[in-house]
Amino acid sequence: xxxxxxxxxxxxxxxxxxxxxxxxxxxxxxxxxxxxxxxxxxxxxxxxxxxxxxxxxxxxxxxxxxxxxxxxxxxxxxxxxxxxxxxxxxx
Length: 91
Prior knowledge:
By secondary structure, the chain is mainly β. The protein has strands at 3-7, 9-14, 21-29, 38-42, 45-54, 57-68, 71-80, 85-90. The strands form two sheets. It has a five-stranded antiparallel β-sheet, with no helix packed on it. The protein has a three-stranded antiparallel β-sheet with strand order 2-3-4, with no helix packed on it. The chain is globular, with a radius of gyration of 13 Å. A hairpin with a 2-residue loop joins strand 5 (45-54) and strand 6.
């Protein structure tokens, strides 16, 4: 996987016990024909979750898998807690 680090619009649900956000679906700019087109991706499965601290900022990294187009792809979503911001980290 290569680092993409693109900001994304994300719809998330929160866990009952500890309030951890879980990604449900997200939108990313950059269709094949139109770079301004937004593609909607539904998160099929979250395989693993890591809590990290990078440059003093606490983050949660989600290792996910979804169908994008006709192919099943793995990718990583990062939620940066102090900024309340989602990023497509690796794809």
